[in-house]
Write a structure and sequence with these properties.
The chain contains 4 helices and 3 strands; from the N terminus they run H-H-H-E-E-E-H. It is mostly helical. The chain folds into 2 domains: 40 residues; 95 residues, no CATH class. The protein is globular.
Length: 138
């Protein structure tokens, strides 16, 4: 019995989302264990806001951009990144648990960025995300 390609694609997309969620949960648990060990420190209102902005930005970079969500904030960040570099990028976590991979979209297919290019794209992505989150937070 043949399985239609759209059903296979749907199954693979679902599996990919489950893997991304599992990785996100593992990172969250690691971060939770680290924060439990830290001392409680009183910080200013501005520092709390900055910490919250960074936490939201980290969530956007680590999860929403990789998951390919259609969130307007994420789409705006991706559009600006494409304008800044003049090309599109794909973000993905490998199945073996390595760091985030950034692939350049080319006519010949996806091509992984060099470490220097990866650092440059990640730096600009982080700056754009921080600015966008800071702008939209009350």
């Amino acid at each position: 019995m043949a399985v239609p390609s759209f059903k296979m694609q749907t199954m693979l997309n679902t599996y990919g989302r489950q893997l991304t969620s599992a990785k996100r949960l593992a990172r969250f648990r690691r971060a939770l264990r680290l924060t439990e060990a830290q001392d409680v420190v009183t910080i200013s209102r501005e520092a709390k806001r900055r910490e919250l902005v960074e936490r939201v930005a980290r969530e956007i970079v680590e999860n929403l951009i990789v998951a390919g969500t259609r969130n307007p904030v994420v789409l705006d960040i991706q559009r600006q990144l494409e304008l800044d570099f003049g090309e599109g990028f794909m973000f993905e976590y490998p199945l073996d648990g390595q760091d985030l991979k950034i692939l350049r979209e080319t006519e010949g297919g996806p091509q992984e960025l060099s470490p220097d290019e990866r650092g440059e794209v990640m730096s600009r992505l982080w700056d754009l995300t921080i600015a966008r989150v800071d702008q939209t937070m009350l």
